[in-house]
Amino acid sequence: GVRTFSLTAQEGTTSFAPATDAGTATETWGFDGAYLGPTLRAERGEKVAVEVTNDLGETTSVHWHGMHLPAAMDGGPHQAVEPGGTWRPAWTIDQPAATLWYHPHPHGQTEEHVYRGLAGMFILDDDASRAADLPSTYGVDDVPVVVQDKVFDDDGQLELSDDGGEPGTLGGTVMTNGTVGAYQEVTTERVRLRLLNGSTARTYSLGFADRQLDLVATDGGLLDAPVRLDEVRLAPGERAEVVVEMAPGETTRLRSSEADLGGVAAPFAMGGNDAFDVLELRAADELAPSPEPAWGPSRHAAGDALHEQDASVTRTFDLDERTINGERMDMGRIDEVATAGATEIWEVRNTIPMPHSFHVHDVQFRVLTIDGEAPPPELAGPKDTVYLEPRRTYRLLMRFDDYTDDRLPYMYHCHMLLHEDEGMMGQFLVV
Ligand code: C2O
Ligand code: CU
Ligand code: CU
């Protein structure tokens, strides 16, 4: 069968009280609603078909971030949907279970479209994820947590800073799933939180003051074993799945504490160092038992594994303020051409004292080294987006599978969306 979805990008109004006065209607955009969009869900091997309708007054697109799919279905700047138009991508889910997401990608306008509210989660399931016995009742013990920051003007409307200052807009209000002061009633001993940094510029360090969390998955799927951490750092576009243990009757808070941004020069300290509450967890007086997560030797089918010795090509990417290898994005220029089936190493160098968030379409990569050292355990899982600390070199291992197109490219870019819109993006073909 085919799993069908329809998504309509539309305008609406949302109340963000208490960040705004009660009764203030903030103009927002959403998919099938006023703000954000529905969580889509599909199974490995399943065919999906989406009908995307644009009811906005301007051109947009919908990109499936983290999805392995043909370039024509990718939803990047080449798949623009005009006002009043409809786009019908279809593809087969062919990758491990993961927490992916979708958002617009119109050339030069991505920051604004995402900031106004166009984004949603796309969850993939498979046999390995079910066998792991993780909390999996959606909305009960398996909870989406879309973290975003906003600036409100005096009229309670969303404000996007347009002064071109680094690193883009940093809001003093942090909200979860579009709610300011969000909380979740917990009824089980364990809760799985699917964290998505859906902000345009801000990097978070998410954790609890009174307990650790178990990181079980990164952008592209489950880790080989859970990693116990105090907090998990997420740059724009990155995801993490964590499991938290709760005791009956207690309350605790997921918060963003002062993120260690990795030696960011003072002028670019990015207000990243504020602390915010993200989600309060309120446990009931009696909690249903949760199964002990069951970790097998490997969560991934052999076909998904990447091996460094298979790499036949190494490419280098130097990032400065707004360019990659000295170039700004040009939709008419192909920057790289990869061969289907080839395993490659991308050596990505952040040459400036300011961070970036590097994202590659179509693939999940593995971080081989950071400045020659093995990455920390939280970067050992499948990734499609990685925070680049200033002046460090990241070696990424990836393979371009089956889908070829000698005309339509995929993108790689900085996921700090002002950077992307100002040209920090390149295009690659898989042929
Ligand atoms: Cu999440 Cu090219 O984007
Ligand atoms: Cu993407
Ligand atoms: Cu950047």
Automatic annotation (TrEMBL):
Superkingdom as given in the UniProt entry: Bacteria
Note whether Oxidoreductase occurs among the keywords.
Answer: yes
Where do the Plastocyanin-like domain residues begin and end? 21-128, 187-247, 315-431
Q: Does the keyword Metal-binding apply?
A: yes
- Keyword terms, alphabetized: Metal-binding, Oxidoreductase, Signal
Q: What protein family does this chain belong to?
A: Belongs to the multicopper oxidase family.
Q: What is this protein called in UniProt?
A: Multicopper oxidase
Q: What phylogenetic lineage does the species belong to?
A: Bacteria, Bacillati, Actinomycetota, Actinomycetes, Micrococcales
